[in-house]
Amino acid sequence: MKSSVYILLGLLLIGFESCRKDYEAPVPYTFTNTPGSGRFVASVRQTMEGVYGVTDGVGQFGDQVALKWTYVLNGADTTHYLSIFTGVDVGYFNLEGDPKADNLVLNGYWRKLVNTSTGLVRLTVRTKHNGVLEPYTGRLATGDTLVVDGLYGENSGTPTQKLTLTYRRPLNQRPFSILAHRSGGRTSDLLPASENSLEIIKLASRLGATGIEIDVRYTKDGVPILYHDNTLNLRLIQKSGLTGPIEAYTYQQLNTLVRLVNGEKIPTLEEALETVINNTSLNFVWLDTKYIGPMDKVQAIQQKYRQKAILSRRDLRIIIGLPSTDAVASYQALADKENTPILCELDTATTLGLGARIWAPRWTLGPQTQEVLAMKAAGLTVFVWTLDEPKFIQEFVSQNNFDGILSNYSPIVAYYHYVEQ
Amino acid sequence: MWVVCLLFVSTSADAQRERQRPDLRERRVFPPGHPRYVPPDTQQPEIYFPQAPVPGKWRRSIGAVFTTTPPELTEEVRVSVPAIDFNIQRGLTKHLYFAGRIQTQVVQSNLGIGLRWATQVSKRTFIGAGYDLNGWFGALQIKDVFNSQAYGVQTFPSLSVGYRLTRDVQLSVRTEAILDLYYRSQVGNLAVVYDQRRINGVAFTVVLEQPFYDNKHVSLGLRAAYSNFNWQLWSLYDTFDRNLFYPQLIFGFIL
Amino acid sequence: MKVHLSIIVWMVCLFAGNVTILAQSLEQQLSNQTGPDSVKVVSKRGPYTIVVSAGSGLSYYSTHLGVPASLEQTHVSRFGVPATLRAMWYPDHRLRMGLETGWTTMYSYRGLVGNETAHMYVSVVPVLLVFSMPLAWLSGTERSIARRLSITGGTGIYINHSRLDYAGTVMANTNSLGWMAAASYTYPISRRVRVAGELKWYDAVAAENAAFTAEVQFVWRPFSW
């Protein structure tokens, strides 16, 4: 009897251990990344953007979605992608035009960020003319409605389930900043690229972001790099044995021996801003001050890339974020504060006293409607951070007071913003 | 963990061999007056072991539960968060008893009440079933950081098996389902409510109860909760729709 | 938040300590009130013993190990020589409690980056609260195998230490929560001295460092009352 109890206990523990899952969400689709837009010429892309009603696929993706085109630049080449933002479980689609198809065909995948649900998608863009579905040629007659329909699947399985989207109205055009935390999103959300990597910066727009927040630290030899945590740890990097503060290591040591969890190198701040300007359409970069000490190197880089953006005719703001009194002290110690726009996360008096252009309180303080309206009346832009809870995102967007939301879940911020009427 | 399992299995084999010899234990019962004398039919002090207190009698324990935070929520900060843990039970009938529990970390607390039914199925083995209803609440007011409150209701149907390993050591294994009934979260003057019933996760508890020093008994155990939401981490606003692992170390003095 | 947590820990410790002291004094009062027989029973409790053990042996790093892909001609070592120091309180029942620390090599590797050698060495210092139980207590004598065998489990902090020699030397530490499990066989030498063999699993969970150790331990009972 006694041994059976021990065995039962052992089996229970083994069973429990076996039940624990290692979560992963590999992208089931390999993008061709063909430069250009193929059949999806500018007029087609422009007319396709909007809020669509969902008929087939409501259970999985909700009753309406928002379609938005984005692009990635690579030298003279521009590659276009379609994103679909859903209101269910922070769902999104990433699609590209099928260059081999005769019609307007989109291939890609869907994913829900709160869990590991994902799958392949193949959609066709058509127009409903007099109640009959016809191929879309880029011209819509009065009364015609765009219909995007096709099939979606689970994981890497062949798509078999119907999805039908019918155009309802244009996207909400109110200016609003959708800011992606940690350059695009958290590593723990199992995104295809690591947080604070060059790869996720290129992906940010496709996740709905119009801007990004990046975390800046210094290496031992004074190179500003992108890294969030205080220490080298397995949440962010592949196992190599290196531990302790990232500031204890030189750039050469990190560059040679450390890789982020998805295999990328830790980028320098200069590499990150170069990527933003050369490869993306992002219009806002928030440099979060994770270091304690002089700010002059970051200021110099901010000013250098601001000039580069101007020369490239890019609508891009690069702002230094001040999250703490230490960061405020570093800012105040700068010899010349000209052309150094700042964002302050502290209280309203400190923000006004510093002459910051942006105030960014934590969302856990609530909507703070009076303070927000007062700051806006004083000419400041007001963002809230880091808001990931979908219901609260919906409430903050619908209250229409903030100018932007910083979130790990830019797809759901994009959804609630674009469908807002 | 596998090492421990193997060890358990191998030692049980040894114990089996020992038992094949004449039953020394029965003959080595300590006489009345001896400090280790146990009167027949005496209940050992116990909180987790599935055995009802004598009807009308109370039993209590005070201790701490240490919960290790999952990396998905606290990221590089991995800590073992302590909560004061107070249990109270009262026998209602021979098999049925009331169970109450308070866990608190000052800024957040959990109050549970439940009914348990337990019976003896062999000389050493006991089984039990329980249904607990827990209300939790938390509030954080920190300048420039938090102006938040939240509360919720969860329910825990459970099954327990208890086994008297020796005269002085009792092993209890409990399996619980964790069900969410209600959740309300407020920041500033803005509140959201989730009131759909849903399965939150499961938990397995293994507890040893035994004398520790003098006549003082302790509960020492591990609870492995595998759940979507944990009330102790409400202020981190978990958005993952996947079960996270919350190991807990339980240590309680039975009063 | 750290300040709040430490306050809670201290509150729990103080409260638990207070409760036990109260319970003890109450019990003694009750014993005194209920007559000389009961007093006799209480006075028979014990003995309480402080047991200190120190040991060493061989360790084997027994989980996955990451060597940077940029290194060529790599050489990895998973073996080390651990050292353990443990102080336990043996009350008058089966369950024992104490603290354990020590030092254990986890692994080391070296390789070439171009013409330059890179060397990495990883070790841990555990600081653990441990509980231990002999497999037999009321039955048998110290001659029985079951009384000499005991299992030990613990939890606490591992201080993970790394030393990198490449383009300079960097020594750094990171704390990690973790646990340990062990099984030991203790052989009595004299009234105060024992020798034990122990198989042990160290797991620094957050740092994903784990090692299996086999040690011979010198066990000494300096105080007993």
UniProtKB/TrEMBL annotation, chain A:
Gene3D superfamilies in alphabetical order: Phosphatidylinositol (PI) phosphodiesterase
Matches recorded under InterPro entries: GP_PDE_dom, PLC-like_Pdiesterase_TIM-brl
GP-PDE domain segment(s)? 176-417
| CDD domains per the UniProt record, alphabetical | GDPD_AtGDE_like (cd08566)
What Pfam families does the entry give? GDPD (PF03009)
GO biological process, alphabetically ordered: lipid metabolic process
User: Which residue stretches, if any, does this entry annotate as coiled coil?
Assistant: none
Q: Which GO terms describe its molecular function?
A: phosphoric diester hydrolase activity
Task: Name the PANTHER family on file.
Answer: GLYCEROPHOSPHODIESTER PHOSPHODIESTERASE, GLYCEROPHOSPHORYL DIESTER PHOSPHODIESTERASE
- Name the chain's protein: Glycerophosphoryl diester phosphodiesterase
Q: Which organism is it from?
A: Spirosoma endophyticum
From TrEMBL, chain B:
Q: Which domain of life is it from?
A: Bacteria
**Protein name, per record:** Outer membrane protein beta-barrel domain-containing protein
TrEMBL record, chain C:
Q: Which UniProt keywords apply?
A: Membrane, Transmembrane, Transmembrane helix
Q: Which residues cross the membrane?
A: 118-138
- UniProt keyword annotation of Transmembrane present: yes
Q: What is this protein called?
A: Outer membrane protein beta-barrel domain-containing protein
